[in-house]
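re: that complex we talked abt at group meeting.

here r the seqs, copy pasted straight from the sheet so there may be weird spacing, ignore it
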Amino acid sequence: MKPVAESPVASRQSQGGGARVLRNYVGGEWVDVDGVELLDDINPATGEVAAQVPLSSAAHVDAAVRAAQEAFPAWRATPPQKRARAVMALREALWERQEEIARLVTEDMGKTLADARGEVLRGIESTEAATAIPHLLKGENLEGVANGVDVELVRQPVGVVAAITPFNFPAMIPLWFLPFAIACGNTFILKPSERDPRPAELIFELIDGIDAIPAGVCNLVHGAHDAVNGILDHPGIEAVSFVGQASTARYVAERSAANGKRCQALGGAKNSLVVMPDADLDVTVPAIMSSSFGAAGQRCLAGSVVVLVGDRERQDEVLAAIRDAAAELEAGAGDKEDVEVCPLVGPEARDRVTGALERALADGTAELVLDGRSTANEAGTLLGPTIVEVSDRESEVAREELFGPLLAVVRVSDLDEALEFVNGSRYGNAGSIFTTSGEAARRYRFGVEAGMIGVNVGVAAPVAWFPFSGWKDSIDGDLHANGNDAVEFYTRKKVVTSRW
Ligand code: NAD
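got the structure back, here u go
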């Protein structure tokens, strides 16, 4: 088993002074988490400490598991239509409070308000999709497999399930999991990112107000490594959904497997945007701006490499259009009108991105096309759109996930060479092609090794009725999030053979 690296975030001393300390939600009660380290939850735009996050221990996880186990027998026996109505009530509450949740996402994670609104809407869509559970849970049957013998398949919940979620979609990603998990009849524990857990807290406040969701069905445990290990090692938890960096995903998947748990662990990404010479730049350039610099590049679907296909003259033309558009983007605090590039989640994230940029410039693996480093704020979190042209296609800026507004540019002569570069990535989360040729789009779609594909679309965003995930190192596990895969993940199949 791999050792768990110490997170600089988790080990930082709390400096929040009087900021509110968050509480866990266990068995239908908000509970203080005493005797643990507190972590500052900062507003990335200002650096202000908005709250303090208790780093729960395995014992706090155990309390949540016991509450979830207690609630499970009655909840799994609740008819699917009634569970669907409970999820509908959550959908109504989310719909009503969506603006408030979106504002909290902006305050806690940093993304622009428009982006945060989109995130919340996608979380609501997952909740809506889960309300179809009476249909989705229906099994199969085959009459008369032998004389007087019938066979039927029924789906049953797996038990207590947990989700461990990342910072970059603090409202949407918890909602990829919670509604489907409980609609299937499971009871649920969420461990949100310790960097921005307040949107999750608000969602649980809504849950607390819904009578149709009994105490213990949904539980919230704040924390970092110790809470995650508490989940992975707890014998009472049957299944773990995870989203985060590839290294954490591998760790979570390995430790879950070692402990006999079902696991879906969605990991990191390095997504390429292929621009064919015939691409319509009026469509392509705005799509690249949104994909590469929206949320300051902190999306698992962010396009972080542009692959320019064609002759040098056309490549120069496309690159100039991309550079000019990026230079015009407005960077600043996410709650300001007109801002398009938000701050990074913390100053250490900006340092990580500029560090990789400076290494690439120093070792000559990349050349600057646009430098965003002079764009800064007091909190040390703002970085303007930055573009580099890559000379070494296997270098860090071309191949590693840097999760910031840093776009690498690679030139290739044709689509085959583009696919060879794209498929050379260890990741396979997403990818897009920009073209006016149906033939090129079709060849790309057939050959590209990634789970979420855009054709003239820069962000192939999740659609709740379809499964969402990547391939290769972008997932450890088989079943994706959302859609029928969610029902598959959160249920066990039982085949009953009867003779009468
Ligand atoms: P992260 O891996 O640092 O954290 C994710 C979760 O794991 C958090 O809840 C955190 O507390 C926990 N964690 C982190 N390190 C741990 C460790 N060593 N041991 C135990 N638990 C640990 O990810 P992040 O920085 O919050 O999120 C950004 C990453 O998530 C990016 O790599 C991005 O590509 C990825 N992501 C992927 C998808 C997808 O669908 N594939 C979606 C969103 C984000």
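couple things i noticed - Residues 1-16 have pLDDT under 50 and may be disordered. The first strand starts at residue 24 and ends at 26.
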